[in-house]
Amino acid sequence: MSNTEIWLPSLITKTPQEGRALAITMARKTIGAIQTDPEKRKQMRPEYADDTAQLISSAQVVAIEFQTIAKANKYWRNEK
Amino acid sequence: MSNTEIWLPSLITKTPQEGRALAITMARKTIGAIQTDPEKRKQMRPEYADDTAQLISSAQVVAIEFQTIAKANKYWRNEK
Amino acid sequence: MSNTEIWLPSLITKTPQEGRALAITMARKTIGAIQTDPEKRKQMRPEYADDTAQLISSAQVVAIEFQTIAKANKYWRNEK
Amino acid sequence: MSNTEIWLPSLITKTPQEGRALAITMARKTIGAIQTDPEKRKQMRPEYADDTAQLISSAQVVAIEFQTIAKANKYWRNEK
Amino acid sequence: MSNTEIWLPSLITKTPQEGRALAITMARKTIGAIQTDPEKRKQMRPEYADDTAQLISSAQVVAIEFQTIAKANKYWRNEK
Amino acid sequence: MSNTEIWLPSLITKTPQEGRALAITMARKTIGAIQTDPEKRKQMRPEYADDTAQLISSAQVVAIEFQTIAKANKYWRNEK
């Protein structure tokens, strides 16, 4: 992830499902900001994708990120 | 989970109990978005379903997702 | 837990202490929704009830569920 | 903890420090509701009190409980 | 930590950075309330200060405590 | 991190992406406040940067810090 790449212009998404996708992106970008070597990240993938405990921890990160995104989008309730 | 499937049109549910079910679905969909191989997910099931520590971690993910859903539904208090 | 059982008609409780009990129920119901075999759940009980790390993780789930319930009940402050 | 004991009549405390104490009590009561044998709880104490990882996890439970209590007390800002 | 010591008169701080320091103090006081022996706490320090997993868990406790403090201080936005 | 360094004058950032960067800084500063030896921190880096479970836990800390920052910035919705 080049430091100049604008990947998060806004927290606003059209739908909750797009909000879920953004939450996953946000979590992944944090991992990329800590482990900046894409090749290493690729090699490490099976360590978490095939490990239920780490899949559950990953789901927890996404749940927290989504909580923030849902609030930013006023829960997509389309209220004024 | 095909990428085009609309599974989360809204966070609004009729009852708290439906909100619980949606929270579990949201957590499961995240796992499916990370480990996209349904066969692998099926084989891994006993690893968490028979492991109390992972059952507890799973319950934590659901609690966070439900927190978001409950807020979106104004706690089903039926206030205007 | 039969799927048709209505166990969560509302998040509203009379007192904070009832809210604590509901939070524990909500956490337990999630475990039951993931590990649906009551006999297995019964056998697994010592694994977490006699393990301090898992007791602490369980307390964390209850704390998150209670946070949602307390908010739903406006912290039982009896304000209009 | 006898089931009839009223230990949480309210979330309101006079000061933040009393709020901290209540948060610790709430976390401990949850442990007591899951592991109901006081003798077992006493024997298990060194397992977490002498284990930094479990002390940190316990601090996390208290932080979440306190977050709820602080909100209930409007952060003791004494605003109307 | 003598039980009569008033260490948390308020959650209000002048700046976010003071809020961070208070969050760390609050987390440490919880550890002190559970493991009351200062000598033991001192001996245990390397166990977490030299262990990345426990440093990360500690950072999580501080992040939750800070979330509460930031809200109490209305995010230091100096709005009326 | 010298104790007199002002690194967190405010939680306000221009964009969500700057908010992400601040969240990572806040998490790192907490680690630095607990493990104050920069040389040790540098040596420990591979322990978490090459460990998927610790990368995921780190992402969780950042998600919680970002939740606070996003709220402080009113989700960058530019509403009055």
From TrEMBL, chains A, B, C, D, E, F:
Highest taxon of the lineage: Bacteria
Gene3D superfamilies, sorted: Hexameric tyrosine-coordinated heme protein (HTHP) (6.10.80.10)
Name this polypeptide is given: Hexameric tyrosine-coordinated heme protein
The species this protein was found in: Flavobacterium ardleyense
